[in-house]
Amino acid sequence: MTNIPSDLKYAKSHEWVRVNGQTGVVGITDHAQHELTDVVFVELPAVGRQVKAGEACAVVESVKTASDIYSPVSGQIVEVNKAVVDNPALVNTEPYGGGWFYKIQLSNLAELNTLLSPEKYKAQIGDLI
Amino acid sequence: MLKRTPLFEAHQKLGGKLIEFGGWEMPVQYTSIMDEHQAVRTAAGLFDISHMGEVVVSGPQAEAFLNQTLTNDVRELTAGRGQYTLMCNERGGVIDDLYIFRLMRTEFLLIINASRINQDVEWMTQRVASGPYVSDVKVTNASNRFGAVAVQGPRVKEFINGCIVGSSAGPTEVDQASDLQKNELGLFNFNRMVIYVARTGYTGEDGFEIFAPLQIVAIWNKLLEVGRPFGLKPCGLGARDTLRTEMCYPLYGQELDEQTTPIEAGLGFFVALGKGDFVGRTVLAEQKEKGVSKKCVAFKMTDKSAPPRPHYAIWSTGADAKHIGEVVSGTQSPSLGIGIGMGYVPAQFAKPGTALEIEIRGKRAPAVVVQKPIYRKPTRG
To answer: Does ipTM surpass 0.90 in this model?
Structure first.
């Protein structure tokens, strides 16, 4: 069974964001890592970069393909996860923990209302299965 | 509408992720490419290869016809033996690469690429019709009649006889399937049906390929049953591709096409220039003598980087770095843990040790030309 933590917001494109005040932590979902399988390389945005919600800002490579990762929220990248660059398998083993991608200073809190709740995300991937 | 093999339902039942390949709906993986790749390198893996084509060429002049149509020397084959060979056009470009087995003195079985069945059959049929052997050679496309599986890996010999029971009924005479030598083919009984079993494969590991007009589902299930205790896993096309890329085996449509010759592809070993005339010989002989302008090289990434992929640009290095070629196959090597690939570059860049750069999303990452195969089995002391 795919894991969908209840304290996160989700994008249709399978990223999650954990919001703490003005900052968000972004990663990809358990469902996404399961579909990708065997992540072998992660390319993260530069710290300081401004990204818009829906903008491709990271790349995840499995053995077979490269996949763009879209920022679920707008803002400035304030930190990236070096551990996941060194050990891309963390995306598979801890998609909501050690496999996080970047921290972002949110520029538009209202955007969070456009993201999916855990229930809605579950319904979305349920349709795909 | 995509074509489905007789094993389609078996793939669904096993949770295989299905993709399009050469007009077929095939499993790319069941669990993960990494797992399946390692299963083949260390134990055993089972592949559906029913999409591949089977053509029977028979008749009193079949040998002469095939020797004028294919690059390798089919006269070397005694009954029950097979060889890798290529079918070229007059320009030396590759129509297909294939395996050919001699079944009898006057009958041959050709195992051809799924994506090339129509082109191959048409090419051979036209050559027969327009050539001197019109009444003495028959080309039969048996692709729809055969299902096929490949069972590959160092432990396969420990369980193959549990599925293919008993001795062969020629052309290679053996007491049991595991006695077949590399490139040998035998006819065996399975549930009282005749099937072909060959000691061949596309992974660089020991193993067998089984071609059966019926019963392929029963053979698949039996192999899974007898092989599971030895670590046998069903494997998809994803692992098939990483395994063959590590071995530098060409894949038609990537390393090979009608504009590329076997000499450029580095397959000169399978071009028997001394056997007499054959289609493409003039061009191939000249290339072998004078050299080629482009060559297919194998390379490894030297730093941590994203894996190379087909169509990425290859650059030379240094102050006058130029765009010199294109990646044709590229992936993360599950065995080596680094990016590997093959690509075409001008001949002066083909020497092992030559530094290259691969352009990945606008940035160039360092790579080095290496000898083929990229992966060699660790020698056990």
So the answer is: no
